Amino acid sequence: MVVDFSNQQGTQQMSELSVVIVAQDSEQRAVLQVLVDGTSVARTVHTCATFPIGATDPVVRRIQSANPDVVLVDIPSDNVGLALRAIELIHQELPKPALFAIGAMSQAQVIVNAMRSGAREFIERPTTTTDLLEAFVRLTTAQRKVTREGQQRGKIYTVVNAKGGSGATTCAVNLALALQAAHGGVALVDIAPLGHTALHMNLKPLFNVADAIRNLHRLDSSLLESFMTRHERGLQLLAGTNTPGPVEPSTAEFARLFDMLAAQFSYVVVDASTRMDATTRLVCNLSETVLLVASTDVASLWSAARVQQFLGENSGRERVMLVLNRFRKIAGFSESDAEAAAGVKLLWKIPNQYFAVSTAIDRGIPLMNQNHTEIARSFTALAHRLTENDVDVKRRAWSLFKTV
Ligand SMILES: Nc1ncnc2c1ncn2[C@@H]1O[C@H](COP(=O)(O)OP(=O)(O)OP(=O)(O)O)[C@@H](O)[C@H]1O
Ligand SMILES: [Mg+2]
Q1: Residue 173 domain-assigned?
Q2: pTM to 2 decimal places
Q3: Are both 43 and 108 inside the same structural domain?
Q4: Probe residue for ligand 1, chosen from 161, 163, 170, 328 as the CB with the greatest number of ligand atoms within 8 Å
Q5: Mean per-residue pLDDT, 184-191
């Protein structure tokens, strides 16, 4: 399947990538082509059945004339050397395309050698559309950072639960409000299986994330904003679904939606709560930091380890950080015990204040509205911690200082 976007101009923030596939095995070539085209953000423009063996090899010229953004090279387990040589050769001869190697994850040395030869990504075989989509999105994001200098793209922070009811929504809502108070330009996006963020803020949204996805083909910044609901403090909410049930795993569409959100807002906070699917994995992969919310009990920390494994399948491990909610000191159980049990580095601890939190939710008046409390101060400090190294935040603080 080859997807043609030519008649959908103005809707594709993320322009389509052209891809050349180099794979000896005909079945693998066909599979990769279906997977690439299935991402909806890339299109196969040429396939090669042989590896180039020298700079003057006609295969190199054929790849060059296809003018690809990405070359996928399949590393067959019985012909690793030839495939690695091909990667090196293409890297030397064609500086423009990014090289993605596809191979078995079990051979660490092959991965290292592929990267040394010039591969930018190493993608596991059997490959999925999500794996490819994530690699394509990473490439586009990195390229955009280089080409659009000075025009900063927003950062995405995703909040996920280790276990249902751990406090992801409380954390996402109050972190978003804290970021909004400190910097402005914040969006809160609710992708939870059943969206609770609007209730937490006593908002009555007319539209939700499903409307934005449905209208993606004609979505521009003003239409996107019209689907969002403004909180009195300026935070823009893209509300979650109010009909429980299985959610369509439409990861390519979510990639485009978040691409647009990051272009428009300084910070995007995502409440994924207990949604564990390809969409959550993709959004986590696009995130600066994933806040994995857990309590300090055995079941929560065990679950945190499982969730982190699920999210970390594609190189995202260091992005995922632990947030201990309802934190209180337990004799004989240290913070490093919690880190070890979850296998995730501790980012933050949120105090245990059942009365304050449940009243805030029931009344729809978020904790951040009472900013003198200990728990509100904790979210303010968390927002500060997450943004302290941001260049534009620093620059803004400096210019503020100059004008005072
Ligand atoms: N820091 C806290 N101290 C005490 N209680 C808390 C704290 N944070 C959350 N809670 C309690 O936990 C409950 C669940 O909170 P919240 O809705 O934020 O969780 P969630 O993880 O998003 O849930 P779900 O799995 O339904 O998405 C709330 O009713 C609240 O009272
Ligand atoms: Mg929730």
Answers
A1: yes
A2: 0.73
A3: yes
A4: 170
A5: 96
